[in-house]
């Protein structure tokens, strides 16, 4: 019988630590719900002691998500563990994930404690966590640069103290596959009580080996891999979930192992994480990159048409990516319903109507509507409904620009039932729109970041604008707008932002 490898997803914790990625609590819950559909075994939702926002996000994920374990990360000290427990205790299946470094370099320079002291801290942290819950994971930070015999002693002691998962990370991405596999085997062979816990690994991609190291660890007895969607994470990122899962699936006979993942949810999850974190997927990224299944050379195309097995070891349907266009100008609500249902979306009738209208409007303007567009529109509509009643509604916007014209914007909005008009000029039309919006709102908004991305190619593509701005008190708001027109997408992102501020105010 095939061995089952658990998937521990840390997109919301390590992934969110990616430089440039910020997720709001709402966005984290949205991703967590999708991860549950993907059927990951554990969702690491955050680091509750890090900030109030982190705490609230972990708590909300714990309250909302059903299925996977919901883990909160904490250092090996009681106050951190209690805080993590307060956040994850709301979950149907809570998990406390506590860690301390075991490498001499970390002990000496970062923690300034001896090996014996660190060992004692690890044991008492696990005992303390076990008083809260049965599911306790312990991580030996920087395991790959630790003394193997010391690592074995720590592993044995924390298992004795009640840890059900022991994670041995390659925190700095230093390990090489064969050597990392050997380390896992060494721990398995030298820790007498090793069968009382699952060995987990958590690999970073500094040398591009995170997936290779994780796979080698599984071959040597690891039963859990920690990973992120699209491989995002600190520095060069973490092991990529989709690459790991598809290795097990495609080379089942080699690994003799499988996961619980519903691979048909991979593409949708990947797109959602990319859009919400703002971290784009490189075109040639394995599994989920736009080119991953594109055959360019004539010889390859001919081969694939004769028999896909000539050049395809996987097919796009396996990850839920349909090669054909699901919806066009002439297809109706049924096609949209079927297309979205096959992607795992659930929606109400009025939402389906709005999604269909927007897809058709897009199909009128651009020849082909790709699956990426449909996912983006569906997410946008469902997100709007979740946000509830908006305080500010856009009624009209007019912009003028040119090589001899000062860019200006005039906007009309309905602000809590009152009509407001404002005009402004700026360095460009987007700047003018932002300034006019500030006038309407009557309070300063500082635009910190602005990013424009086309969902699919071409000048008629769907534009996805994400903005980050701060209010008078320095609070950050991260919102997005989606439209075929870049000015409109920008206006929508700003309006969404103001509505988010209004909701925050009312709270
Ligand atoms: Zn990490």
Topology:
Blueprint: E1 3-4, E2 6-9, H1 25-38, E3 42-46, H2 52-64, E4 69-75, H3 78-88, E5 94-101, H4 104-111, H5 115-132, E6 136-141, H6 148-161, E7 165-170, H7 177-190, E8 198-203, H8 210-219, E9 224-227, H9 241-250, H10 252-255, E10 257-258, H11 266-277, H12 298-306, H13 333-342, H14 349-365, H15 371-387, E11 392-402, E12 405-415, E13 418-425, H16 429-441, E14 446-454, E15 463-470, E16 476-483, H17 486-506
Parallel strand pairs: 1-10, 2-3, 2-9, 3-4, 4-5, 5-6, 6-7, 7-8, 8-9
Antiparallel strand pairs: 11-12, 12-13, 14-15, 15-16
Bound molecules: zinc ion.
Task: Please give a structural write-up.
Strands 2-3-4-5-6-7-8-9 form an 8-stranded parallel β-barrel, surrounded by 8 helices. A 3-stranded antiparallel beta sheet has the order 11-12-13. Strand 14 and strand 15 form a beta hairpin. It contains 17 helices and 16 strands. It is an alpha/beta fold and 507 residues long. Helix content is 42%, strand content 21%. Helix 5 packs parallel to helix 6 (148-161), helix 6 (148-161) crosses helix 7 and helix 7 packs parallel to helix 8. The protein has 3 domains: 3-277, Aldolase class I (TIM Barrel), CATH 3.20.20.70; 298-386, no CATH class; 390-506, 2-Layer Sandwich (Double Stranded RNA Binding Domain), CATH 3.30.160. The model has no long low-confidence stretch (mean pLDDT 90). It has helices spanning 25-38, 52-64, 78-88, 104-111, 115-132, 148-161, 177-190, 210-219, 241-250, 252-255, 266-277, 298-306, 333-342, 349-365, 371-387, 429-441, 486-506; strands at residues 3-4, 6-9, 42-46, 69-75, 94-101, 136-141, 165-170, 198-203, 224-227, 257-258, 392-402, 405-415, 418-425, 446-454, 463-470, 476-483. The structure holds zinc ion. Zinc ion binds at residues 14, 202, 204, 233-234, 238. The site of zinc ion has 6 residues, from loops.
């Amino acid at each position: 019988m095939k061995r089952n490898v658990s998937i521990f997803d840390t997109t919301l914790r390590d992934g969110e630590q990616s430089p440039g990625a910020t997720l709001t609590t709402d966005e984290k819950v949205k991703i967590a719900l999708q991860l549950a559909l993907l059927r990951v075994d554990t969702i690491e939702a955050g680091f509750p002691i890090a900030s109030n926002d982190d705490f609230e996000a972990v708590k909300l994920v714990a309250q909302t998500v059903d299925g996977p374990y919901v883990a909160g990360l904490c250092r090996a000290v009681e106050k951190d563990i209690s805080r993590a427990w307060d956040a994850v205790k709301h979950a149907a299946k809570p998990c406390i994930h506590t860690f301390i470094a075991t490498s001499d370099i970390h002990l000496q320079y970062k923690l300034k404690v001896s090996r014996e002291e660190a060992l004692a801290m690890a044991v008492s942290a696990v005992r303390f966590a076990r008083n809260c819950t049965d599911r306790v994971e312990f991580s030996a930070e920087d395991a790959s640069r630790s003394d193997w015999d010391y690592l074995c002693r720590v592993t044995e002691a924390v298992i004795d103290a009640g840890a059900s998962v022991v994670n041995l990370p390659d925190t700095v991405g230093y390990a090489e596959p064969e050597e990392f596999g050997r380390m896992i085997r060494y721990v398995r062979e030298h820790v007498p009580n090793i069968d009382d816990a699952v060995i987990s690994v958590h690999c970073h991609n500094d040398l591009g080996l995170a997936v290779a190291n994780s796979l080698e660890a599984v071959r040597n007895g690891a039963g859990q891999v920690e990973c992120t969607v699209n491989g995002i994470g600190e520095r060069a990122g973490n092991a990529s979930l989709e690459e790991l899962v598809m290795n097990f699936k495609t080379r089942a006979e080699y690994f003799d192992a499988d996961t619980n993942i519903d691979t048909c949810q991979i593409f949708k999850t990947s797109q959602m994480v990319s859009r919400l974190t703002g971290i784009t997927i490189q075109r040639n990224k394995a599994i989920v990159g736009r080119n991953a299944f594109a055959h360019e050379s004539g010889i390859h195309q001919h081969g694939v048409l004769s028999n896909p097995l000539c050049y395809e070891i996987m097919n796009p349907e396996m990850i839920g990516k349909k090669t054909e266009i699901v919806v066009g100008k002439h297809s109706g609500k049924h096609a949209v319903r079927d297309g979205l249902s096959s992607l795992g979306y659930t929606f109400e009738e009025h939402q389906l109507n709005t999604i269909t209208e927007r897809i058709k409007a897009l199909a009128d303007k651009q020849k082909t509507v790709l699956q990426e567009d449909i996912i983006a529109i569906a997410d946008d509509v469902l997100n709007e409904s979740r946000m509830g009643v908006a305080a500010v509604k856009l009624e009209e916007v007019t912009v003028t620009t040119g090589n001899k014209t000062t860019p200006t914007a005039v906007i009309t909005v309905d602000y809590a039932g009152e009509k407001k008009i404002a005009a402004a000029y700026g360095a460009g039309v987007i700047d003018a729109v932002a300034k006019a919006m500030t006038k309407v709102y009557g309070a300063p908004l500082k635009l910190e970041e602005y990013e424009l991305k086309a969902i699919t190619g071409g000048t008629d593509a769907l534009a996805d604008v994400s903005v980050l701005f701060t209010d008078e008190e320095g609070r950050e708001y991260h919102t997005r707008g989606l439209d075929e027109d870049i000015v409109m997408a920008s206006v929508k992102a700003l309006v969404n932002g103001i509505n988010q501020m209004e909701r925050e105010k009312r709270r």
